Task: inverse folding
């Protein structure tokens, strides 16, 4: 019954690349029935293997600009002549359907989501146990060149100072414990009183509905 | 590591008698390693079977009044000539030891704890699915006379209007789901960024400690 009464919630996850966000999120997908992972919208052409609605929502420049004009973007930016942004359309329809909307975004993106959708948003910052461990993980996964790794490290050093802007903090030094904790936070995020209309609860409780 | 860095947290549980708090809390005790269930202090004499430090902290009137004078009570009241109150002494030592301090208190008590210890406190209001179900549970457990049951029902009707003062809301219509949710909230309560000193986290992360 609980799930029938509440509105959807937002879960924002941030943390340096290499902190293990994707592995932790897999456990959330298993534990939460009804979620929507927020995907960015872009006007750039799909690369080989990229799918519309999976990697990005691919739209035309005209469509993107119309949506900007109509206030449908939570945030957007133009990079090398292409637009990138977070469209409110699928977020709002998911919230209305009572889903948990999950964002994997940076500190900047978190600030905007918290500002605009404060009451329904729960946010978590995830770190590796140490900076050294972050360097090791980035080196061992062997996907970035050394200048990209250096940039990621510098970025992580800046971002970690913003932990206090988040609701929760997870130090990912044990994958099982950290994923259990993230699952707990995701479940709690859906039980916030701010998601409920108190009048609806009382009506239901009194069996008037 | 996470648990070494954070300070203790407070979990407040409220809800009408008969909503299943005790059964739900049993699951929290199993899932949380390091908790302290807050016990009231009183100057009344122990009844048969009551134990000091289990049912109440039994103290002398002089001791109680000295503690009032020294600001050690979060709240206190005098009922039929006896003092009852919540002493901060064991709460503060438990928080300093990094424990989860659990309170089973009413709406009034919650208001005081939230006021005084806001940053470390997470609160949950628990209800039966319906008012009818509450009546059934109170009748079937056969521990209260009909005037007590009536008083409890009237009280529940008043208290449910205060749900929005709480962080979380649980409708206990399925014991297993409701207790999993309470366990999730209890675990999340211990990962709030407000429990951490951000400087400590950064020092640890940089391996300066």
Result:
């Amino acid at each position: 019954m609980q799930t029938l009464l509440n509105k959807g919630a937002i879960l924002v996850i941030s943390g340096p690349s290499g902190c293990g966000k994707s592995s932790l999120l897999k456990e959330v997908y298993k534990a939460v029935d009804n979620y929507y992972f927020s995907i960015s919208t872009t006007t750039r052409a799909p690369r080989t293997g990229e799918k519309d609605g999976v990697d990005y929502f691919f739209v035309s420049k005209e469509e993107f600009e119309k949506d900007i004009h109509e206030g449908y973007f939570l945030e957007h930016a133009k990079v090398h002549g292409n637009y990138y942004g977070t469209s409110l359309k699928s977020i709002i329809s998911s919230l209305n359907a009572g889903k948990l909307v999950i964002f994997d975004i940076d500190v900047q993106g978190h600030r905007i989501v918290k500002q605009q959708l404060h009451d329904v948003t729960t946010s978590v910052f995830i770190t590796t146990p140490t900076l050294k461990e972050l360097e090791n993980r980035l080196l061992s996964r062997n996907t970035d060149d050394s200048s990209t790794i250096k940039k990621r490290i510098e970025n992580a050093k800046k971002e970690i100072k913003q932990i206090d802007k988040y609701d929760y903090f997870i130090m990912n030094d044990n994958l099982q414990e950290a994923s259990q904790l993230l699952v707990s936070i995701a479940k709690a995020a859906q039980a916030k009183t701010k998601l409920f209309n108190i009048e609806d609860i009382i009506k239901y409780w009194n069996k008037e509905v």
